[in-house]
Write a sequence for this structure.
């Protein structure tokens, strides 16, 4: 009786393990569907700017790591002059060189304008897998390609300054002045996202 059970049970376990492994190997997104989504007129310049860096669409962590190894992506410090990076559950703290430099310069400019104040970076580079995971908990996350998928975009909260989650109109005005300065200089595009309470910033290949 025991031999019979083992013969039946072992193949069942193997079958279950194989199906789970196969399921894990499959991406959680459908690339064909993702590529079919047309960007809005407001968002299209962000994607065009992203593609100008010569970075291929970041599908997964493995793709991102290849760029890191090649020196194309640079690690973003958790804090710097004028900025803090919150815990990144659905993005990675790496960006292309110009995006990293622009973030740091914006932070320094904001710090000077607010006499030592800091803004909060809430999201940085996302792979398609990261975006898929995010969409499971946030239905507002993009269904199509995001400029975050190329390593030159980041989000800044406009409700969290000096590590305090609280509406601060003076700080928000100061932040928007910094963003406008860089936009007028032809270095970034930015969008104020009302649902996410953040500014979406895309650095141009200036």
């Amino acid at each position: 009786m025991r031999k019979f059970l083992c013969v039946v049970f072992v193949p069942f376990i193997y079958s279950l393990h194989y199906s789970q492994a196969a399921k894990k190997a499959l991406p959680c997104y459908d690339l064909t569907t993702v590529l079919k989504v047309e960007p809005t007129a407001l968002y299209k310049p962000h994607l065009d700017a992203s593609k100008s860096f010569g970075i291929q669409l970041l599908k997964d962590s493995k793709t991102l790591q290849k760029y890191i190894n090649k020196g194309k992506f640079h690690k973003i410090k958790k804090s710097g002059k004028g900025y803090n990076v919150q815990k990144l559950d659905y993005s990675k703290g790496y960006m292309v060189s110009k995006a990293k430099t622009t973030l740091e310069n914006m932070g320094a400019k904001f710090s000077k304008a607010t006499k030592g104040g800091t803004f909060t970076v809430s999201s940085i580079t996302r792979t398609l897998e990261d975006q898929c995971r995010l969409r499971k908990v946030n239905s507002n996350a993009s269904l199509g390609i995001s400029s975050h998928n190329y390593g030159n975009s980041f989000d800044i909260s406009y409700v969290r300054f000096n590590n305090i989650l609280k509406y601060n109109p003076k700080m928000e005005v100061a932040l928007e002045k910094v963003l406008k300065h860089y936009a007028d200089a032809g270095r970034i595009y930015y969008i104020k996202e009302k649902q996410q309470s953040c500014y979406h910033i895309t650095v141009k290949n200036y």
The helical segments are 2-25, 31-36, 44-51, 61-69, 97-113, 128-137, 169-184. The radius of gyration is 21 Å. The longest strand covers residues 153-161. The first helix runs from residue 2 to 25.
